[in-house]
């Protein structure tokens, strides 16, 4: 990732999230409605549009137009999200099963160990899925395909293009979440803080995709020319 400066990545993302105040104000309302499922497809569809336009070079939050296209994009991203949620539940259920088995066998020490294993598994799985989910989201935004977004090889390939750059993007995104969490102490602004955080994070991952893809294409062209 050519622009591997953490502070620059962080600052650019915050600048992007506040680049269109009217879009930000509407986004906060939609984010609030997402808690009741009503606004979720529109929210996910809008963030998908943000990713597409950022990858294309647009550094400003897009307007809330073309609602139908946004809605269908959002529905497909709901499918991606549910696939992750289902995978998470399967992993957790397999580990949780051991807790119930040891309880039935009246083995308290093994119940304790299996409970600890369950808590650790829940935490580790959640972290891993959070790390790769945005890679899936970028893949959907660029390929318009739920299947591609959920293909492990494509996800791994995107991350492996520049692991250091992806880590920088991840750290900047965690910093945005941390700042957003502090800001959200003022309850009334939570929807707008949440929307701004997602917008900023989506910009981070979009720029990661854009810069690594350009670099990878140039490298391949150079090797092709050398041969």
Automatic annotation (TrEMBL):
Origin superkingdom: Archaea
One protein family per Pfam: DUF4013
Signal peptide (from-to): none
UniProtKB keywords: Membrane, Transmembrane, Transmembrane helix
Organism: Methanocella paludicola (strain DSM 17711 / JCM 13418 / NBRC 101707 / SANAE)
Name assigned to this protein: DUF4013 domain-containing protein
Chain segments annotated as transmembrane: 21-44, 78-102, 109-140, 170-198
